[in-house]
Structure formats: structure tokens, C-alpha cells
């Protein structure tokens, strides 16, 4: 049988990404002779294939992709030339020597790409090789998007906006349960090409569609690292929406749902009300304030801006306007960031947070999400996905920032 790849990543894409990874390695782990990459997400980013195995990126020379299974698929999808099979980590030194890409005495490792037990196994199978962390170099490599990636993100953002603002309002109304609304969101998203799978990269983090929070569900205690609470489907699946919670006419409906197209994510939060007449003055004022913070932040997404400084500047504005209590979450749901990088995963670098001092670069992509929780009512606010440009943030998820009203 003859098969053709569904999408063959251009060789220039992999070469550009690997070149940038080597630059970051030279800065952050200069003693390493190369990097061992294990997570399928990072392997895909650098090779164009969703592979089970390990990618070796030497400091110079051709990378080598080693597959435990699926070598035929890898050779279909990836532009890389050196694609081999292996069964055990103990084979890596010999296989890489034969490929003229030896490990060397010190190798950087994507440590978050392995469980602790697999990391210990790797150490035991590579005696004499000093393993050093390489995750930060990988994170900064993925933070800057190529034009190829931006084209996918722009398409995802456009479809995301259409689903939430054109299609979904015809499918929902007060009186529906959160679960019914979640099914309507899936319907709208699938109509616009959402591929159903969304990914997070930080250990233990999961997501399924996103958060469907009617009324005070938005302030329900949450384990998720975001400001919007929710009851969720069940304690073991705190996502989607609760079948026992009905969206009432006088409540805000907060939908924080990511969109994924060809592996790339955009993030957007839309607030829905039954109609304008039911919006309390406090909620209206808080919504307007969140829109002002989004505008303030997005206009400053320029190369050279320092995320930590942007965060501190916004917090000063929040406190000066007496909006601190529910800003970025009510009570213990409060989080210490205003936005996050996004791409192949929802939780990428950089983060608009106090600890991120590395300057922004052109073509970084971030989701900005100023939100305010209101006790006894729910949450209002906004979230959209922006790309860093010399003129400020370019919004990828449309200009309709809400609130939105069902048809």
C-alpha cells in the first residue's frame, strides 16, 4: 500500500526551530553536547511527527529521531532524514554513534517529558553521561511562533470567534443546564473545525473543552490554575458543566473554552447574559474595567516589554480603582498572573506574572484574561489571544469582546 502524509511539515520549519533551540541551549546549558527530547508534543514541534520515542538534537549536525513504535508513520510525516528504531535506552549511545551524532559526556534532557521512574531508568541506561535540564531552552524556543504556526493560529482564532459569537448564541438560552450548554459549545466548535483534543504540558494539568460556569458556579472552589471556578461534571472530572446547575436569566454565563485546529490552540472567554436589562450595575462596571485592562495590556505587547513589569503596572491600576477583591479570582480561586503563552499547548511561556523578567519577542503569542469574580453573582471579564508585534498585540480571536446575548 502507498500512503501520503496528511501534512508534511516543511524542512525549513524544522531547521528554523532546531536552530533556535541550539541558540537557547548555548545560552542556558552550554556544556551540553545536545538535547534528548521525550514528550510527544516537543518531538512534534521539532520534527513534525507525533512520535513515541526520543529525539536527539546534537549541538551541531543532523538530529536523529528514534522511535519505539511507528517508524513508518514518522518517515511519512517528518522531513528529518535520520529516523531509526530502538527498544531500550541502553541502545542510544551505540545508535547515535553509528548515526555520527554521539551523545558526548553531558547531554541536556527534557526532564518534564519523562516521569520520575523513567528518568531514573534513563540514568541507569546511560552510565557516564551527565544529564542536565534542558526544559527552559525548549520552552523559549516554542514561545516564538513561526509564520507557519501563526497562519494556523490565525485560522483557529477566527473559527473560535465565529463559533462563540455567530453560532453558539442560536444554540443556548437561560433555562439550560451547564451540561446542555457544554454540549452546545461542542456542537458549535465542531461545526467550525475544532479537532476535539486540547493539550496542557505542565505535570498533572488536564483540560476537556473548558469551563462552563453559570452564575455562582464561576466562584466554585477550583483546583485548575485559572481564575474561573466551576462545578464541573463530577469531582473526578472538574471540567465541562454540571447537569444540576441551570443558567438563570439574571446570571452571567462564563465560557472559558479553548479552540484547537491542526494542533494549535487559541483561548477565549465570552460572557453571556439573557439580555442587557438583567446586567447589574456592579457587573457592568467590572466588565468594562476588564476590557480596559485587556486594552492596556494588549497595547503594550511589543518586543522588549517585560512581562513582570506589565503585571505590576496592571495590579497598580486594579488597586487604584478598588477592584482588587475579585480580580483574577474570588477568594482562594485568585491566581497570580494575567496571561499566558499558548500554541501547541494551552499553558506555554511567557506568562504575564511577577517572576517573568525575560523581554517579549515579536511573534510570541499570549492569551490575556482579566476577569473579576463577584460574590453571589458569578464572574465577568474577558480573554483573547494576541500575537506580539511592534505596534502592540494583534488579536487573533476577533474584536467582539462581549458581553453576548443569545438570539
Automatic annotation (TrEMBL):
Residues 17-144 form the Creatinase N-terminal domain. InterPro entries: Creatin/AminoP/Spt16_N (IPR029149), Creatinase/aminopeptidase-like (IPR036005), Creatinase_N (IPR000587), Pept_M24 (IPR000994), Peptidase_M24B (IPR050659). Residues 152-389 form the Peptidase M24 domain. It holds the Pfam family Creatinase_N. CDD domains: APP_MetAP (cd01066). It comes from the Bacteria. This is Peptidase M24.
